[in-house]
Amino acid sequence: MLRDEGMTRNRRGYTLIEMVVVMVMLAVVVAVAVPRGLKTSPQLQVDLAARGLTRDLEKVRMRAIAAKRRVRFSFMAGEGFYTSYMDISPGRTGAIESTADEVHESRLATRGSNGGIPGVELPKGVVFGFGDAAAGPFGGPASDPITLEGDRVEFDSRGMIVPAGAGGVIFLTHEDDPSAVAAVSISGAGAFRAWRYRGEGWSE
Q1: How far is it, in rounded angstroms, from Cα 60 to Cα 63?
Q2: For residues 134 and 130, what is the distance between their CA atoms, to the nearest angstrom?
Q3: Fold of domain 42-203
Q4: Radius of gyration of the chain from its Cα atoms, rounded to whole angstroms
Q5: How do residues 105-149 score in pLDDT, each as one tens digit?
């Protein structure tokens, strides 16, 4: 009997107070360590922004095909912002008025607004620019952050770029690190590619 009582006493385990103390200590350690672990480098921030832009371009292009309507993807370089508009005219005339309703119809995943127009703001620190890159992914000089005519690209109801064959490059860099550069190329056929700049050149 005495033996059983001793075993029971030894198997009692931790008290509720001890468990709470341990959990509080773990919470403090996690609160200090996690933000440091989540901090991303300027190059990674720029790379992620380029990939996000590539996905948004593809999404909007597919929306043009699904709706059989014209869509315009516009960049505001100085604002670090982009958005897209869909032709919502009853007769599908291709007319675009640059309204908030047209943005909603394009189904771009809006994460901000500019002048009352929904759209996507670049992540903090990321801007349109070519930083230290002297040339683009295809060798042309990097003289403009957005080489698209009128800082925009349009897709017709079949997802083809209008006018046919038009394309360009969008450069992204980081305010705190001009060596952190990425780019998104748009071919005349409507293909999008994300690029990363390294001192010696570009890679996908």
Answers
A1: 5
A2: 8
A3: minor pseudopilin epsh fold (3.55.40)
A4: 26
A5: 999 989 899 999 999 999 999 999 999 999 999 988 888 999 999
